[in-house]
C-alpha cells in the first residue's frame, strides 16, 4: 500500500464515512488471561464510544511508511489449507460472527504477543464500496466496481492512570482519586487484506508498529507467517556497514559527503510520488560509483553487499539517508551542518595535520554571543 491508499482507508474512520459492520474485543491481563470478550454491531455504540474507537483505528494506520507501516506478503505455503493467510481469510469471510474462529484468533495473539501488562485487542469488519475515479482524479461515487471487505486489528496497552487528589462531590471534600485502567493508542495493528491499487489484495497485509524498532518477530512469523522485515535503524546500520567495508582505507570525507548529497537528491526527486523510494543493490552500486568510490574498492562491493544485507535485500532511501542533518563528529567536537550547505566544509592538510576548514562569510556565534570577526595572526 502507498500513502494515498492508506489515507483513503483512514478517511473512513469518521461518523459520516464509516463502513464498519461489526466490532469485537478481548481484554487480556498481564498473566495472559482473558478477562472479558465483546462482540456487537458497530452502529449500536454510542456516539462518544464510536469516536474513541475511530481514534484508535486512525492511529493504527499512522506513522511513516517503511518505518511504522510495513507491507508484508504471505509466503505461498501460507495460502494453502491451515496456512496463516487462509485462516485470516476465513476470519474475514465470517464477518466476525464465528465465535470459534474469534477465540482461535485471540489465542494466537496471546501466544505470540510479548507484553508484560494488560492489553486490549480490538477487531473490526468493514465493507467499503470503492468509488471510481475520473481521469482528473476526482472520485465518482456512482461508478464503483470494487468492494473492499477488510479487517483491522489493533492491540492497545491498558495502563493504570496516575494517582492524585480529586474533589469528591458526594461528601464535599478533596481526597484520593479512584484510579482507572485506560486503553492507550495501539502499539501494534494490522490491516487485512491489503488495499493495493485501490483493490483487495489477499496476498498481503499492512502491519503497524508504534515503535519501529520493536516489530515483535513472533507475532509477524507465527500469526502472519511472514519473515521479519529489516527495521529502519537496521537498514541504516547495514548501509553504513556496506559503505565502510567497501571503501576501506578510501573512506574519505568527500566521498561520504557525495553519497549523502546523491541520496538526498534522489529523495527530493521522488518526494511527490505516493510510493516510497526503494534502493536496490544495483542502485547503491551506482550511488557509490557516482560519488567517487575508486574502481579497486568497487570490486569487493558485490560480495560485501550480499554478506552484509543479503542477496535480494532492498532498503528505503528515507531509512538510510539523513535528510534533516549532516553531522561531523570527532571524540571531542561535533559539527552540525545545514544539509544543503555541505559545500562550506572542506578537508585540508595544515602543518601536517588533517583539518576541517569551514568557510565563514557572516557572523559567528559562540555560546550565544555574536563574534563579528576572526583576527588574523601575523
Task: Tell me the layout of helices and strands.
Elements: H1 3-10, E1 20-28, E2 34-41, H2 47-59, E3 69-73, H3 84-93, H4 99-112, E4 119-130, E5 132-133, E6 139-140, E7 146-160, E8 165-168, E9 173-176, E10 181-183, E11 188-192, E12 194-196, E13 199-201, E14 204-209, H5 217-223, H6 232-247, H7 253-270, E15 278-279, H8 281-290, H9 295-298, H10 301-308, E16 315-316, H11 317-320, E17 326-329, E18 334-337, E19 345-350, E20 353-358, E21 364-366, E22 369-371
Helix pairs in contact: 6-10
Percent of residues in helices comes to: 25-40%
Q: What's the total number of strands?
A: 22
Class per helix and strand makeup: alpha+beta
Using only C-alpha atoms, the radius of gyration works out to: 27 Å
Strand content: 25-35%
What shape does the CA trace take?
globular
- Sheet bearing the most strands, described? 8 strands, antiparallel
- Please tally the helical runs, counting DSSP H or I stretches of 4 or more residues: 11
- Rounded mean pLDDT is 90
Low-confidence stretches: none
Termini Cα gap: 64 Å
Give a written overview of the molecule.
The chain is an alpha+beta fold and 378 residues long. The chain has eleven helices and 22 strands. It has helices at 3-10, 47-59, 84-93, 99-112, 217-223, 232-247, 253-270, 281-290, 295-298, 301-308, 317-320; strands at 20-28, 34-41, 69-73, 119-130, 132-133, 139-140, 146-160, 165-168, 173-176, 181-183, 188-192, 194-196, 199-201, 204-209, 278-279, 315-316, 326-329, 334-337, 345-350, 353-358, 364-366, 369-371. Strands 1, 2, 3, 4, 7, 10, 11 and 14 form an eight-stranded antiparallel sheet that branches. A hairpin with a 2-residue loop joins strand 19 and strand 20. Helix 6 packs antiparallel against helix 10. The model has no long low-confidence stretch (mean pLDDT 90).
Amino acid at each position: 500500500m502507498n500513502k494515498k491508499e492508506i489515507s483513503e482507508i483512514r478517511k473512513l474512520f469518521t461518523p459520516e464515512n464509516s463502513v464498519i459492520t461489526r466490532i469485537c474485543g478481548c481484554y487480556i491481563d498481564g498473566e495472559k488471561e482473558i478477562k472479558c470478550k465483546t462482540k456487537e454491531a458497530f452502529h449500536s455504540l454510542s456516539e462518544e464510544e464510536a469516536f474513541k474507537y475511530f481514534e484508535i483505528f486512525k492511529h493504527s494506520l499512522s506513522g511513516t511508511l517503511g518505518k511504522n507501516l510495513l507491507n508484508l506478503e504471505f509466503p505461498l505455503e501460507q495460502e494453502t489449507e491451515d496456512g496463516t493467510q487462509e485462516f485470516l481469510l476465513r476470519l474475514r469471510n465470517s464477518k466476525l460472527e464465528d465465535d470459534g474462529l474469534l477465540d482461535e484468533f485471540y489465542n494466537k495473539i496471546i501466544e505470540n504477543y510479548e507484553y508484560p501488562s494488560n492489553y486490549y485487542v480490538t477487531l473490526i469488519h468493514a465493507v467499503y464500496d470503492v468509488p471510481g475515479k475520473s481521469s482528473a482524479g476526482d472520485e465518482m461515487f456512482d461508478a464503483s466496481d470494487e468492494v473492499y471487505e477488510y479487517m483491522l486489528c489493533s492491540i492497545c496497552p491498558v495502563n493504570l492512570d496516575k494517582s492524585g487528589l480529586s474533589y469528591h462531590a458526594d461528601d464535599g471534600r478533596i481526597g484520593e482519586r479512584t484510579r482507572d485502567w485506560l486503553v492507550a493508542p495501539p502499539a501494534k495493528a494490522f490491516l487485512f487484506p491489503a488495499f493495493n491499487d485501490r483493490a483487495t489484495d489477499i496476498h498481503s497485509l499492512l502491519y503497524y508498529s508504534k515503535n519501529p524498532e520493536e516489530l515483535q518477530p513472533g507475532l509477524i512469523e507465527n500469526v502472519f507467517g511472514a519473515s521479519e522485515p529489516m527495521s529502519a535503524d537496521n537498514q541504516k546500520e547495514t548501509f553504513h556497514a556496506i559503505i565502510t567495508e567497501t571503501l576501506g582505507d578510501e573512506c574519505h570525507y568527500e566521498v561520504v559527503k557525495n553519497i549523502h548529497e546523491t541520496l538526498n537528491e534522489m529523495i527530493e526527486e521522488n518526494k511527490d510520488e505516493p510510493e516510497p523510494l526503494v534502493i536496490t543493490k544495483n542502485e547503491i552500486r551506482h550511488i557509490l560509483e557516482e560519488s567517487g568510490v575508486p574502481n579497486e574498492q568497487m570490486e569487493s562491493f558485490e560480495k560485501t553487499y550480499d554478506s552484509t544485507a543479503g542477496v535480494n535485500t532492498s532498503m528505503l532511501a528515507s531509512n538510510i539517508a539523513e535528510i534533516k542533518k549532516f553531522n561531523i563528529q570527532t571524540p571531542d567536537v561535533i559539527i552540525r551542518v545545514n544539509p544543503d550547505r555541505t559545500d562550506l566544509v572542506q578537508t585540508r592538510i595544515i602543518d601536517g595535520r588533517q583539518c576541517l576548514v569551514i568557510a565563514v562569510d557572516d557572523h559567528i556565534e559562540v555560546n550565544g554571543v555574536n563574534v563579528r570577526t576572526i583576527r588574523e595572526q601575523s
